[in-house]
Design a protein that fits this description.
The relative contact order is 0.10. A hairpin with a 2-residue loop joins strand 1 and strand 2. This protein has 13 helices and 4 strands. The chain has about 250 residues and is mostly helical.
Length: about 250
């Protein structure tokens, strides 16, 4: 399929993100005899043909640069791989690239690349990652912090009816005044830390749950993949902290 057939308007093409132009270019590169020679894709031949036969009537120099950016992105993502032939100018489409059958597959790939599953805490990788891949960002964020809440409740041995910010305050309760001598620190409070850092930890968990999980204050919901991925990675880090401060089981 010619690029101009996929995106007929040049202004629309130049308005796309580099990843989106990457998909347009990938479709163009798959199996076209004027691009592929003896199983290799030659960048010089592709762009030389583009210069000789412009695909749009105007803004050709900008189109060329946009496609070069997209080519570089495909290389960086491992979708377009340089051959080891003597000329060193050939490329081939990776196995991952060949598995991307349509735009939906490509969009799922793009979302997955923003949230590497291997870097997530296991609880999030199992329960939250699928919702993120489906593009259900508000659900994924809510589920991620629900996992934080559940992990804190289990680690601290709290009852099921203790939830939200109050749960975090009790779990990470700081004892820093003589009048509180009879009050025990929270079961997840790291008493080896200075009091100011213990308080910071309590505020961190309480604030995170208050912003991202509590239904009453769940108003700041990321609506794009990049921001949702950052917030979910934050929840993953909180779960690792819970793992670290959980008292050993008797």
């Amino acid at each position: 399929m010619e690029i101009s057939s996929q995106v007929p308007n040049v202004d629309d093409l130049l308005g796309l993100e580099v990843e989106e132009v990457g998909w347009v270019l990938l479709v163009r590169l798959r199996g076209h005899p004027d691009v592929v020679r003896r199983g290799e894709i030659h960048q010089y031949n592709f762009f030389n043909a583009l210069d000789q036969r412009p695909i749009y009537d105007r803004r050709q120099a900008e189109v060329r640069k946009a496609l070069l950016e997209a080519w570089a992105w495909l290389e960086r993502e491992g979708l377009l791989v340089r051959e080891t032939s003597a000329s060193g100018s050939g490329f081939f489409l990776s196995r991952r690239a060949m598995e991307l059958e349509n735009g939906a597959d490509f969009n799922a790939y793009r979302r997955a690349s923003r949230l590497p599953k291997s870097q997530l805490h296991s609880r999030i990788a199992v329960r939250v990652y699928p919702a993120f891949l489906r593009g259900e960002y508000d659900t994924a964020v809510f589920q991620a912090f629900r996992e934080v809440e559940i992990a804190v409740r289990e680690a601290g041995g709290f009852p099921a009816d203790l939830v939200g910010v109050e749960l975090m305050r009790q779990a990470f309760r700081v004892v820093n005044r003589p009048t509180q001598a009879a009050v025990a620190p929270g079961p997840l409070a790291d008493v080896s830390l200075p009091v100011a850092e213990q308080e910071g930890m309590a505020h961190l968990f309480a604030g995170a749950i208050g912003i991202y999980k509590n239904p009453q204050s769940h108003r700041y919901v990321p609506t794009c993949a990049e921001e949702a991925a950052e917030v979910i990675m934050f929840a993953s880090q909180l779960l690792r902290i819970v793992d670290r401060v959980t008292p050993p089981r008797s």
